[in-house]
Design a protein that fits this description.
This protein has 329 residues and is mainly beta. It is 13% helix and 34% strand. Helix 3 links the parallel strand 25 and strand 26. The protein is elongated and about 110 Å long.
């Protein structure tokens, strides 16, 4: 009996020591700012990181409103082009002038814009309506996980939808990001091993740069978004980009993408500004006849050939910039 009692005491003592050691270890790790987690992995062996498993890596930054843009109408596109140029008067004096046009302004269509040097481009200037239900902006602290992992963004924080994650950047171990339906913007840079992005059609804007492991990116197709600034830059693994037909204007898209071979532009697009530059493998690009203005685009593309309509703005641009072109079949 004594032996059994002694054995039981020893087992109980060992359990107490183990429990005490675990509590002490967790206390020490908490003091160091590193919470003790039970790690879980997905079907591909990637560590799963979420606000439930790693709450210390998520930081509340404030509230934000989801924006609804009015549908653009002729004469009220919400996109303005600002031109500054020098005009010589009859008596030989040079006068600095500045003109601001709406993209759909008839005066702009009659302007010899090829001889102008646009110094600024601003938009949107249309009406913006904020929904009543404000949401949450979070920050995720990148670079803390030192093994390949998959990031799962929460859809709710303290009872409010999460609309945006502020700047996920400089993380060599991040391989996949899963965004919830509530997310409206994607902002990622310098994540060299990021291979997969999953986000819904609710996303309105993307800014992705220096992510060479990405081989494909889906451009947002939200019905209320008609312009796109920034987008995808310096991502050498991407070979194809398709711009959906909801866009009237794009700017600063797909610059310095060394692997980009194909771009698809849809009818309805009207303005292309400083896009598709320094893409050495990009070849033939079909420019829709709806395009009325191209500014500083398709530069530094050694193999580029533009497919244009006869008498179109794209033909005039190709001739002015000495870019090879062919006519639509």
């Amino acid at each position: 009996m004594r032996r059994k009692l002694l054995s039981g005491c020893l087992v109980l003592g060992a359990l107490l020591v183990l429990l005490g050691g675990t509590v002490l270890l967790r206390y020490i790790q908490n003091r160091q700012g590193k919470l003790f987690h039970k790690e879980s992995y997905d079907e591909n062996g990637l560590l799963m990181v979420s606000i439930k498993t790693h709450p210390e890596l998520f930081e509340y930054m404030g509230m934000t409103d989801p924006l609804e843009y009015e549908e653009c109408k002729p004469g009220k596109s919400g996109i303005e082009l600002e031109f500054r140029y020098t005009e010589t008067t009859e008596d030989g004096k040079e006068i600095e002038k500045e003109d601001v046009y709406d993209l759909f302004d008839p005066a702009l269509l009659k302007t010899d814009w090829l001889n102008m040097s646009p110094q600024g481009w601003s938009g949107p200037r249309g009406k913006i309506a904020a929904k009543e239900d404000a949401g949450v902006l979070l920050r995720f602290t990148s670079g803390e996980i030192e093994k390949p992992y998959r990031l799962c963004i929460p859809d709710m924080f303290e009872g409010k939808p999460v609309f945006s994650i502020f700047q996920i950047k400089d993380d060599p171990f991040l391989e996949r990001i899963d965004y919830p339906d509530s997310i409206q913007s994607v902002d990622i840079s310098n994540c060299s091993n990021l291979k997969e992005l999953n986000y819904s059609k609710n996303v309105r804007s993307i800014g992705i740069s220096d992510c060479d492991a990405l081989t494909s990116v889906r451009i947002p197709e939200h019905k209320n978004i008609s312009f796109m600034m920034d987008g995808v830059t310096e991502c050498n693994g991407i070979e194809e980009l398709i711009i959906p037909d909801n866009y009237l204007a794009i700017g600063y898209i797909a610059c310095s993408c060394g692997g980009l071979r194909r771009v698809e532009l849809k009818e309805g697009l009207m303005l292309i500004k400083e896009s598709f530059n320094n893409c050495p493998l990009l070849e033939e690009v079909y420019i829709p006849d709806s395009v009325i203005m191209i500014l500083d685009s398709f530069i530094g593309c050694e193999k580029i050939v533009l497919s244009v309509g006869k008498g179109s703005a794209a033909e005039k641009y190709a001739k002015a910039k000495e870019i090879p072109f062919v006519y639509h079949e």
